[in-house]
Amino acid sequence: MFRLSEDRLGLTHCMKNYPFRFLIFTLISFIASSGQAEAFETEKYSANPASITHGRPNLNCPQFQVFGYPTLSDSKILRRAFYTCRSGYAGLYDPAERTPLWIAEHLMKNNLQGIAEREFLDFIPDPDIPSGALPKPADYAKSGYDKGHMAPAADFKSSQTAMAETFQFANAIPQAPHSNRHTWKQLEDSTREVAYRRGEIYVISGPIFSDSPREKIRNSVSIPTAVFKILIDPKTKTMTGFVVPNSHSVDKEFRVYQVKVREIEKLTGLNFNPSLGQTEADRLEVTTGGDWLMPKGSLRR
Q1: Is 149 annotated as catalytic?
Q2: Is residue 295 part of a domain?
Q3: Is residue 300 part of a domain?
Q4: 147 has which bridge partners?
Protein backbone atom coordinates (compact mmCIF):
# COMPACT_ATOMS: atom_id res chain seq x y z
CA MET A 1 0.00 0.00 0.00
CA PHE A 2 1.29 3.45 -0.88
CA ARG A 3 2.25 5.31 2.30
CA LEU A 4 3.02 8.99 2.71
CA SER A 5 5.84 10.28 4.90
CA GLU A 6 5.11 12.64 7.80
CA ASP A 7 6.42 15.61 5.82
CA ARG A 8 4.25 14.75 2.85
CA LEU A 9 1.22 14.66 5.10
CA GLY A 10 2.22 18.03 6.59
CA LEU A 11 2.14 16.71 10.17
CA THR A 12 5.75 17.16 11.34
CA HIS A 13 5.00 20.54 12.89
CA CYS A 14 2.11 19.04 14.83
CA MET A 15 4.21 16.20 16.23
CA LYS A 16 6.75 18.65 17.64
CA ASN A 17 4.34 21.23 19.01
CA TYR A 18 1.22 19.26 19.97
CA PRO A 19 2.43 15.75 20.92
CA PHE A 20 -0.60 14.74 22.98
CA ARG A 21 -3.15 16.01 20.45
CA PHE A 22 -1.19 14.37 17.65
CA LEU A 23 -1.25 11.04 19.52
CA ILE A 24 -5.04 11.21 19.81
CA PHE A 25 -5.30 12.19 16.15
CA THR A 26 -3.07 9.26 15.13
CA LEU A 27 -5.10 6.76 17.15
CA ILE A 28 -8.35 7.97 15.58
CA SER A 29 -6.86 7.75 12.10
CA PHE A 30 -5.55 4.24 12.79
CA ILE A 31 -8.94 3.04 13.98
CA ALA A 32 -10.62 4.49 10.90
CA SER A 33 -8.11 3.05 8.45
CA SER A 34 -8.11 -0.41 10.04
CA GLY A 35 -11.83 -0.79 9.49
CA GLN A 36 -12.81 -0.78 13.18
CA ALA A 37 -15.00 2.33 12.85
CA GLU A 38 -18.13 0.48 11.78
CA ALA A 39 -20.21 3.65 11.59
CA PHE A 40 -18.44 4.71 8.40
CA GLU A 41 -18.18 3.27 4.94
CA THR A 42 -15.05 1.47 3.77
CA GLU A 43 -12.58 3.69 1.94
CA LYS A 44 -12.86 3.19 -1.83
CA TYR A 45 -10.07 5.27 -3.31
CA SER A 46 -7.75 4.18 -6.07
CA ALA A 47 -4.88 1.89 -5.11
CA ASN A 48 -2.67 3.51 -7.76
CA PRO A 49 0.32 5.28 -6.19
CA ALA A 50 0.62 9.02 -6.57
CA SER A 51 2.31 9.93 -9.82
CA ILE A 52 3.35 12.93 -11.86
CA THR A 53 4.05 13.33 -15.56
CA HIS A 54 5.67 16.39 -17.09
CA GLY A 55 4.70 17.68 -20.52
CA ARG A 56 2.47 14.71 -21.36
CA PRO A 57 -0.87 13.38 -20.08
CA ASN A 58 -0.84 10.91 -17.22
CA LEU A 59 -2.32 7.78 -18.79
CA ASN A 60 -2.25 5.81 -15.51
CA CYS A 61 -4.88 7.95 -13.80
CA PRO A 62 -8.21 7.66 -15.69
CA GLN A 63 -10.51 7.19 -12.71
CA PHE A 64 -11.51 10.78 -11.99
CA GLN A 65 -13.38 11.68 -15.16
CA VAL A 66 -16.11 10.12 -17.25
CA PHE A 67 -15.80 11.87 -20.63
CA GLY A 68 -12.02 12.27 -20.65
CA TYR A 69 -9.77 14.75 -18.87
CA PRO A 70 -9.90 18.37 -20.01
CA THR A 71 -7.71 19.12 -23.01
CA LEU A 72 -6.00 22.36 -24.02
CA SER A 73 -4.85 23.41 -27.47
CA ASP A 74 -1.98 25.63 -26.26
CA SER A 75 1.10 23.46 -26.80
CA LYS A 76 3.37 25.79 -24.80
CA ILE A 77 1.29 25.28 -21.66
CA LEU A 78 1.10 21.53 -22.20
CA ARG A 79 4.90 21.21 -22.56
CA ARG A 80 5.58 22.98 -19.27
CA ALA A 81 2.64 21.58 -17.24
CA PHE A 82 2.63 18.77 -14.69
CA TYR A 83 -0.16 16.18 -14.69
CA THR A 84 -0.83 15.15 -11.10
CA CYS A 85 -2.51 11.98 -9.81
CA ARG A 86 -3.39 11.65 -6.16
CA SER A 87 -5.54 9.33 -4.06
CA GLY A 88 -8.69 11.38 -4.56
CA TYR A 89 -8.07 13.69 -7.52
CA ALA A 90 -6.11 14.39 -10.69
CA GLY A 91 -5.07 17.73 -12.10
CA LEU A 92 -3.02 19.86 -14.47
CA TYR A 93 -0.56 22.21 -12.76
CA ASP A 94 0.92 25.18 -14.63
CA PRO A 95 4.28 26.34 -13.19
CA ALA A 96 3.97 29.67 -15.05
CA GLU A 97 0.74 30.58 -13.23
CA ARG A 98 1.84 28.61 -10.14
CA THR A 99 -1.69 27.27 -9.85
CA PRO A 100 -3.59 24.26 -11.18
CA LEU A 101 -5.53 24.83 -14.40
CA TRP A 102 -8.03 22.14 -13.46
CA ILE A 103 -8.61 19.53 -10.75
CA ALA A 104 -10.88 16.52 -11.38
CA GLU A 105 -12.65 14.38 -8.76
CA HIS A 106 -15.05 11.44 -8.66
CA LEU A 107 -17.35 12.00 -5.67
CA MET A 108 -19.14 8.89 -4.42
CA LYS A 109 -21.74 8.70 -1.68
CA ASN A 110 -19.80 6.05 0.22
CA ASN A 111 -16.72 8.27 0.55
CA LEU A 112 -18.35 11.47 1.77
CA GLN A 113 -18.64 10.54 5.44
CA GLY A 114 -15.93 9.54 7.89
CA ILE A 115 -13.69 10.81 10.66
CA ALA A 116 -10.69 12.21 8.81
CA GLU A 117 -9.69 15.59 10.26
CA ARG A 118 -7.96 18.67 8.80
CA GLU A 119 -7.04 20.23 12.17
CA PHE A 120 -3.29 19.58 11.91
CA LEU A 121 -2.96 20.04 8.15
CA ASP A 122 -1.55 22.99 6.25
CA PHE A 123 -0.37 23.46 2.69
CA ILE A 124 2.99 22.05 1.66
CA PRO A 125 4.81 21.88 -1.70
CA ASP A 126 3.83 18.92 -3.85
CA PRO A 127 6.71 16.47 -3.24
CA ASP A 128 6.79 15.28 -6.87
CA ILE A 129 7.03 18.70 -8.54
CA PRO A 130 10.33 20.66 -8.50
CA SER A 131 10.25 23.10 -5.59
CA GLY A 132 11.20 26.03 -7.83
CA ALA A 133 7.97 25.57 -9.79
CA LEU A 134 5.73 25.82 -6.72
CA PRO A 135 4.54 28.53 -4.33
CA LYS A 136 5.68 28.57 -0.72
CA PRO A 137 3.56 29.29 2.37
CA ALA A 138 5.23 32.70 2.72
CA ASP A 139 3.95 33.71 -0.72
CA TYR A 140 0.41 33.78 0.64
CA ALA A 141 1.27 35.43 3.98
CA LYS A 142 -0.33 38.89 4.30
CA SER A 143 -1.35 38.73 0.64
CA GLY A 144 -5.03 39.29 1.36
CA TYR A 145 -5.86 35.91 -0.26
CA ASP A 146 -6.60 32.45 1.12
CA LYS A 147 -4.90 29.28 -0.03
CA GLY A 148 -8.04 28.05 -1.77
CA HIS A 149 -8.58 24.32 -2.35
CA MET A 150 -9.78 23.19 -5.76
CA ALA A 151 -10.38 19.63 -4.52
CA PRO A 152 -11.77 20.49 -1.06
CA ALA A 153 -10.52 18.68 2.01
CA ALA A 154 -14.10 17.98 3.13
CA ASP A 155 -14.65 15.78 0.06
CA PHE A 156 -12.41 13.14 1.67
CA LYS A 157 -13.78 12.55 5.15
CA SER A 158 -13.35 8.80 4.74
CA SER A 159 -9.58 8.93 4.12
CA GLN A 160 -6.93 10.81 6.10
CA THR A 161 -4.40 10.23 3.33
CA ALA A 162 -6.68 11.59 0.60
CA MET A 163 -7.57 14.60 2.75
CA ALA A 164 -3.90 15.34 3.47
CA GLU A 165 -3.11 15.27 -0.24
CA THR A 166 -5.53 18.15 -0.85
CA PHE A 167 -3.12 20.33 1.16
CA GLN A 168 -0.54 20.51 -1.64
CA PHE A 169 0.09 23.70 -3.59
CA ALA A 170 -0.65 21.95 -6.87
CA ASN A 171 -4.26 21.98 -5.60
CA ALA A 172 -4.38 25.64 -4.48
CA ILE A 173 -5.12 29.08 -5.90
CA PRO A 174 -5.12 32.56 -4.32
CA GLN A 175 -8.79 32.93 -3.42
CA ALA A 176 -10.57 35.99 -2.04
CA PRO A 177 -11.52 35.19 1.58
CA HIS A 178 -15.16 36.26 1.30
CA SER A 179 -15.67 34.05 -1.72
CA ASN A 180 -13.64 31.11 -0.38
CA ARG A 181 -15.23 31.04 3.07
CA HIS A 182 -18.81 31.81 2.07
CA THR A 183 -19.99 31.60 -1.57
CA TRP A 184 -17.49 29.00 -2.76
CA LYS A 185 -17.86 26.98 0.45
CA GLN A 186 -21.64 26.87 -0.04
CA LEU A 187 -21.08 25.60 -3.58
CA GLU A 188 -18.73 22.92 -2.26
CA ASP A 189 -21.27 21.90 0.40
CA SER A 190 -24.04 21.77 -2.19
CA THR A 191 -21.87 19.70 -4.54
CA ARG A 192 -21.32 17.09 -1.83
CA GLU A 193 -25.06 17.02 -1.10
CA VAL A 194 -25.79 16.45 -4.79
CA ALA A 195 -23.23 13.61 -4.87
CA TYR A 196 -24.84 12.06 -1.80
CA ARG A 197 -28.34 12.22 -3.28
CA ARG A 198 -27.35 10.98 -6.73
CA GLY A 199 -24.85 8.36 -5.54
CA GLU A 200 -21.94 9.72 -7.57
CA ILE A 201 -20.90 12.68 -9.69
CA TYR A 202 -17.73 13.82 -11.42
CA VAL A 203 -16.43 17.29 -10.61
CA ILE A 204 -13.92 19.58 -12.32
CA SER A 205 -12.75 22.80 -10.63
CA GLY A 206 -10.22 25.43 -11.54
CA PRO A 207 -9.28 29.09 -12.03
CA ILE A 208 -10.22 31.51 -14.79
CA PHE A 209 -7.66 34.12 -15.82
CA SER A 210 -8.79 37.11 -17.82
CA ASP A 211 -6.42 39.86 -16.71
CA SER A 212 -3.42 40.66 -18.89
CA PRO A 213 -0.96 41.25 -17.40
CA ARG A 214 -1.90 39.02 -14.48
CA GLU A 215 -2.41 40.33 -10.97
CA LYS A 216 -0.09 38.36 -8.68
CA ILE A 217 0.90 37.75 -5.10
CA ARG A 218 4.51 36.99 -4.12
CA ASN A 219 6.66 34.64 -6.18
CA SER A 220 4.59 35.33 -9.32
CA VAL A 221 1.57 33.34 -8.14
CA SER A 222 -1.28 34.41 -10.43
CA ILE A 223 -4.58 35.58 -8.96
CA PRO A 224 -7.62 34.29 -10.92
CA THR A 225 -10.44 36.64 -11.79
CA ALA A 226 -12.96 33.85 -11.22
CA VAL A 227 -13.20 30.17 -10.24
CA PHE A 228 -15.23 27.50 -12.01
CA LYS A 229 -16.81 24.22 -10.97
CA ILE A 230 -18.43 21.67 -13.31
CA LEU A 231 -20.68 18.83 -12.12
CA ILE A 232 -21.33 15.78 -14.32
CA ASP A 233 -23.85 13.02 -13.59
CA PRO A 234 -22.69 9.85 -15.40
CA LYS A 235 -26.06 8.12 -14.97
CA THR A 236 -28.25 10.82 -16.51
CA LYS A 237 -25.50 12.19 -18.77
CA THR A 238 -26.25 15.74 -17.69
CA MET A 239 -23.94 18.48 -16.49
CA THR A 240 -23.92 22.00 -15.17
CA GLY A 241 -21.36 24.62 -14.23
CA PHE A 242 -20.65 27.62 -12.03
CA VAL A 243 -18.38 30.63 -12.46
CA VAL A 244 -17.85 32.44 -9.16
CA PRO A 245 -15.97 35.78 -9.20
CA ASN A 246 -12.74 35.71 -7.19
CA SER A 247 -13.77 38.92 -5.49
CA HIS A 248 -14.08 40.36 -2.00
CA SER A 249 -17.58 41.58 -2.90
CA VAL A 250 -19.00 38.37 -4.40
CA ASP A 251 -22.69 37.60 -3.94
CA LYS A 252 -23.34 35.22 -1.03
CA GLU A 253 -25.81 33.16 -3.11
CA PHE A 254 -23.75 30.78 -5.27
CA ARG A 255 -26.72 29.73 -7.41
CA VAL A 256 -26.78 33.08 -9.22
CA TYR A 257 -23.49 32.01 -10.82
CA GLN A 258 -24.82 28.85 -12.49
CA VAL A 259 -23.90 28.67 -16.20
CA LYS A 260 -23.70 26.24 -19.09
CA VAL A 261 -20.50 24.22 -19.43
CA ARG A 262 -19.86 25.60 -22.91
CA GLU A 263 -19.58 29.08 -21.40
CA ILE A 264 -16.76 27.88 -19.12
CA GLU A 265 -14.98 26.31 -22.09
CA LYS A 266 -14.99 29.71 -23.81
CA LEU A 267 -13.56 31.40 -20.71
CA THR A 268 -10.79 28.85 -20.10
CA GLY A 269 -9.91 27.46 -23.54
CA LEU A 270 -10.41 23.96 -22.13
CA ASN A 271 -12.41 21.13 -23.69
CA PHE A 272 -14.00 19.44 -20.69
CA ASN A 273 -15.48 16.41 -22.49
CA PRO A 274 -13.00 15.43 -25.22
CA SER A 275 -14.30 11.88 -25.63
CA LEU A 276 -17.79 13.09 -26.62
CA GLY A 277 -18.72 13.54 -30.25
CA GLN A 278 -19.60 17.06 -31.34
CA THR A 279 -23.37 16.43 -31.50
CA GLU A 280 -23.55 14.97 -28.01
CA ALA A 281 -21.17 17.60 -26.62
CA ASP A 282 -23.42 20.32 -28.01
CA ARG A 283 -26.46 18.72 -26.44
CA LEU A 284 -24.88 18.30 -22.99
CA GLU A 285 -22.76 21.44 -22.77
CA VAL A 286 -25.18 23.90 -24.35
CA THR A 287 -28.71 22.79 -23.55
CA THR A 288 -28.61 21.40 -19.99
CA GLY A 289 -26.70 24.04 -18.05
CA GLY A 290 -29.46 25.46 -15.86
CA ASP A 291 -31.52 22.30 -15.39
CA TRP A 292 -29.87 21.14 -12.17
CA LEU A 293 -31.59 22.14 -8.96
CA MET A 294 -28.82 22.73 -6.43
CA PRO A 295 -29.56 22.52 -2.70
CA LYS A 296 -28.51 25.54 -0.66
CA GLY A 297 -25.90 23.48 1.18
CA SER A 298 -25.17 20.11 2.72
CA LEU A 299 -27.46 18.51 5.28
CA ARG A 300 -24.62 16.24 6.44
CA ARG A 301 -21.44 17.03 8.41
Answers
A1: yes
A2: no
A3: no
A4: 174
